[in-house]
Write a structure and sequence with these properties.
The chain is mostly helical.
Length: 502
């Protein structure tokens, strides 16, 4: 039954990819879907890609180990959706329509009139996307390993083949449509697990009592001792509330909505559906209680917690639906990351920097985009055969890279006319090098700071951006000079002075 439902789900995804393939005309439709989607489509695409395998596989595993502090990540990410819509949605949609931008680096070059800023942003997106994609592939392999009953490598291969077909064929149109279907499945699956699991453990009070008996810190917002302490709590705020604005796989969806007036509804729908789907994180805490009771074997790896809990305690029919939901979370984010990684190479590095903006025939653009997407898929597949870390921590590290590299130059730059090109170059460079470098030092246990490495890199990047911008000469920007709507945005946000930003 589980296998049958899994196969039906994968066939539906393949059909969507095949139908969407016929609608691909050029790079615009491949990467933005032609800016033709309504609020429900965009909203569910945003909540679906925010969730990811990190949320459906990684966070339950971390919750199994640490308890409620991991739930704070979901709460902060829900708040981050509101923040991103409030600050970025309308300006990004207006600016990209005015200047024909397809990617975030496109927008940044318009803002700062700098190929260097474009290039650094593209490298940050590419690096973070590969890291995050490894987390998605690891989660996908773990899930299909359980559903299909095959070893990890074969399960990973099967998942990647299906993913390749519908992403390369259908581009962003298939990605958004599959996100829509996948989010509906995720909501149903999450509610089933949350309600069913809560009954199994005896209710919220009993769950908290038993978790507290294991470790009192498991029922707190952060631990009193160990690495998940108050500094981790502060770090999660920076990375997931503020840093949500720098997640390119999410905020690039703002380009795709048909009308600006639809954004307010998309915001509410997106935050609500993400919050509901994130209830699956409770499976990690349910599992911990069940293991302590002796009713469930201890998982060999925290990443196997959610699949094991579903398989052990739900009927095959229900388990099949839930497994489809988990695969939906993984594949929706995978497709988004593959497309932004591909666009960073094709659009931002090759076409705009190497070829200096030379226009390519639409069919050649589309063919090149598909070819590079396949290369990215193969690269991340090879790296994911023996991934270096848990899904949860891989995802967290990638969020940190995006937050530090992109949030200051994107969010502050759109709102603050005084921001300069030199400030943006230094900020993005420091954000990228520090987020990657500090993370490597941390996993090698050379330097393990109290704050998360991504949060440290973000703070340094943001502060340096403001200070250097104030110390360097203000430059004109086509974004503010030629777009009256953007001038209005800047005027309305005049209260965001340099002091307030810093």
């Amino acid at each position: 039954m589980i296998l049958t439902i899994g196969i039906i789900y994968l066939l539906v995804i393949l059909v969507i990819g095949f139908v969407s393939m016929k609608k691909q005309k050029d790079m615009d439709t491949f990467y933005t879907g032609g800016r033709s989607f309504g609020p429900w489509m965009v909203a569910l695409a945003i909540s679906s890609t925010t969730m990811s395998g990190f949320g459906f596989i990684g966070l339950p595993g971390l919750a199994y180990q640490n308890g409620y502090p991991m739930l704070m990540i979901s709460i902060f990410a829900t708040a981050g959706i509101f923040v991103s819509f409030f600050i970025l949605a309308k300006p990004m949609r207006r600016i990209t329509q005015k200047f024909g931008a397809l990617t975030i680096p496109d927008l940044l070059e318009v803002r700062y009139n700098s190929k260097a800023v474009r290039g650094i942003a593209a490298l940050a997106i590419l690096g973070g996307a590969i890291g995050y994609q490894m987390a998605q592939y690891k989660a996908l392999g773990n899930m299909l390993q359980t559903v299909l009953g095959v070893d990890y490598k074969l399960a990973l291969f099967i998942g990647v083949v299906i993913l390749t077909f519908y992403v390369v064929g259908g581009g962003m149109i298939s990605a958004v449509w599959t996100d829509f279907v996948q989010m509906l499945v995720m909501i149903v699956g999450s509610l089933i697990v949350f309600i069913g699991g809560m009954k199994m453990v005896g209710g919220m009070t009993q769950l908290n009592t038993e978790l507290s008996a294991i470790n009192p810190d498991m029922v707190q917002a952060y631990h009193t001792v160990g690495p998940i302490g108050v500094f981790a709590f502060i770090s999660y705020f920076f990375i997931y509330v503020i840093g949500h604005q720098g997640q390119p796989h999410v905020v690039s969806k703002f380009y795709m909505i048909r009308k600006l007036s639809m954004l307010k509804w998309a915001c509410i729908i997106s935050a609500a559906t993400y919050a509901i789907s994130s209830l699956l994180i409770f499976s990690g805490m349910y599992s911990r209680v069940m293991v302590e009771r002796g009713e469930m074997p201890a998982p060999a790896s925290p990443d196997m917690v959610a699949p094991m809990f579903i398989e052990n305690f739900f009927s095959p029919l229900v388990a099949g639906i839930i497994f489809a939901a988990v695969m939906a979370a993984i594949m929706s984010t995978s497709e988004a990351f593959l497309l932004i990684a591909s666009s960073s190479i094709v659009r931002d590095i090759y076409q705009q920097i190497i070829k200096k903006g030379e226009a390519l025939p639409p069919r050649k653009e589309l063919a090149l985009s598909r070819m590079v997407t396949i290369v990215v898929i193969l690269l991340t597949f090879v790296l994911s055969i023996n991934p270096p870390d848990l899904v949860g921590w891989l995802g967290n590290a990638s969020w940190g890279i995006f937050s530090a590299s992109l949030v200051p130059v994107l969010s502050i730059g759109i709102l603050w006319k005084r921001a300069t090109r030199i400030g943006a170059i230094w900020s993005a460079s420091l954000g990228l090098t520090l987020s990657v470098g500090l993370y490597i030092l941390k996993i090698k246990e050379i330097y393990v700071p109290a704050l998360d490495t991504g949060a440290i890199a973000f703070i340094i990047s943001a502060v340096s951006f403001v200070i250097i911008s104030l110390l360097t000469k203000q430059e004109s920007s086509a974004m503010f000079e030629n777009d009256e709507e953007v001038k209005e945005i800047s005027t309305n946000n005049e209260a965001l002075s340099a002091d307030n930003i810093s």
